[in-house]
Amino acid sequence: MLYRENGQFKSSYGEDQQMLPILQDRRVMFGLLAFAFFGVPFLASDYLFLSILIPFLILTLAAIGLNLLVGYCGQISIGHAAFMSVGAYAAYNLALRVPQLNFLVVLVLAGLVAALVGMLFGIPSLRIKGLYLAVATLAAQFFMDWVFARVKWFTNYSHSGSVSTAPVELFGWRLDSPPEKYLFLLGVLVVFTVIAKNLVRGHLGREWMAMRDMDVAAEVIGIRPVYAKLTAFAVSSFYCGVAGALYGFIYLGSWEPLAFNLTLSLNLLFMIIIGGMGSLLGSYFGAAFIVILPIVLDQVPQMFGIAMSTATTSHLAFMIFGALIVFFLIVEPHGLARLWAIGKEKLRLWPFPH
Amino acid sequence: MKSSSRLGLRTTIVAVSAALAALSAVQVQAQAKEQFFPVLSYRVGAYAPNGTPFANGYVDYLKLLNARDGGINGVKITFEECETEYNTAKGVECYQRLKGKGPTGAAVFHTLSTGITFAVTDVTFADKIPIITAGYGRADSVDGTVFGYNFPLGGTYWGAADMLIQHVGKLEGGLDKLKGKKIALVYHDSPYGKEPIALLEERAKMHGYQLQLLPVTHPGVEQKATWLQIRQNRPDYVFLWGWGVMNSTSIKEAVATGYPRDKMYGVWWSGAEPDVTPAGDGAKGYRSLVFLAPAGQGAVHKDIVKYVYDKGQGTGKKEEIGEVLYNRGMTAALLSTEGVRRAHVKYGKKPLKGEEVRWGLENLAIDAGAIKKLGFDGFMVPVATTCADHEGGSSAMIHVWDGKKWNVQPGTYTPDMAIIKPMIKASAEKYAAEKKIAKRDCAKEQ
Asked: What residue ranges do the domains of chain A occupy?
């Protein structure tokens, strides 16, 4: 009843091929975007921006990147935080050594550097698949950890291995207040999501999905595996590189090599597994689950006025978080995005059962 | 249709007025005479064995002030702990969560992690909340003209490394006798562990000893390769710059490879009971720096037992009172509360904002008489800060573990500021240039 497409006729190819063909979808999406751009900056508190919304937006971007590789192209990677760190340090060095560059140019260049590195570490994917590829990408993680800790040029010979960045300035607009950072990140995320959506609906995305579903058959019908897999690695690393640069510059401000360690890689993987592999909406859900839920769980005893030692709260949060992961994967192995899709399907028929 | 809209209007008016009433009630409560102290701690994870006694000492002292004195000059102390797990991102989230609590916001933060210090330093300029990094943090934050809100009270890692070299030089019979000797630094591969390297390399150039750098990745339980290298290289001294389980693992590995423990020197964060007790008898002879407070119990501990533990309000176990890290937590709380007390002199005996507490911390003048009055005789050294010098004097002693307790050796060391001061200046200016911060003019601000 709510979601019926009655009366919505498409009279051109353009209308038929649009990203959101259902009118209700379009209305909700634009309403959500309008609220996110014009409502949230005035309503949310600083804490909500700095600790919840900003890391959520940045890690969603990284999760979209990883989803393009793992969900759409089927190449497992558990070293993607390495590409984030490549992007972050590339952006740091560019901003430091070529200060005249606009920050957007720095972001794109950092992404390109990360894409190159990603393609390099994606070469093993041409020969090995699955778990073995996962191990090869793990090598990327440890290698990058080592490079940024030992090769002092990358950290500008800092005593402590830690690097600091100045607040970002864009066309004279200095991003130092939380709502400004949030708006910038939201804009970047929306642009990159639209680009990703277009990529997966187009020729390249279809090649990726063919490689994922049955790579031998794809090769037989003429899809070049080298091209498909390496472009998947390149685009995915580009996204993660940009996300890493934003993570370092806007969220942390000051970071050390440990900020992009294996835990972050695994978190990204968990985000897309729980959110839904092969779905952009799944990246959003997964990032929300992994970023926001632990913070909420840490504060629940406080909110209800229960006096508990912080150690107990932490341990409880771990247990509940783990239990929820297991629960969601049992209930719906394809992730939260699939649950959402099922809900939408049922809404089309509601209140009728079939 | 019309009646339903009128009903809607009435309920809206009721709801809005109820909300306003609730809001005004909150406002009234917010004016209570309380000063909020956030407590960033880690009771979970690889660093919990060391973080827990520190947090217990900190919180116990705050509870003591409330129970015995009714707060600071009549202003009650409220506090809240937040678990950081020694993780930078979580530490920043805890900082953001707690900075606005209390009627005037958080008074002062102790980040208890060099990594979190680096990340939070950038934000303190905007938030105007001081952070005390007593014995850790950025060594260059001694310069108060650049790092207006950082207070490495009592010592930094450059000072610590300097004092260790002085002690080792004394053992050898003079700093010139260090030529040709081998010193290995086993350090935690994080900003904490890397901080002393600059000074040790500087001193290596001056005195001619060979410095071997051996990083250990977090969390530090994998040290077999490191100690194999030490066994092959046979350095004359090993400096240990670890934290959490890394410390106890290092000592156990030293026992396993047969490196003499009396040639191992830990920094003040690598010389506490949780580090030596896991190695059992093998840790006998291990020594480290100790600053501010040694292990033991004094007048203030008696008060804590009387006013806090006997009333069932103790945070940790009663047997752990008087341990090295517990005492250090207590002295950290003392520095926080004395900063607030000093600020009361200028701003009045009321809840203060972070900026006002900063003034108090910049004008600290804790002398021997004040220490005795506070009950910290033997467990605190005089601290005197200024706008430009946020360290307030640094000194340390060596203590040795004999299997049951720590014994402080006679002889106090102070860092050689002739070497360290130019390093601080250069590093602080580099930071100011990178972050585009204007230096403070101390003369004008007074």
From this structure: 46-349
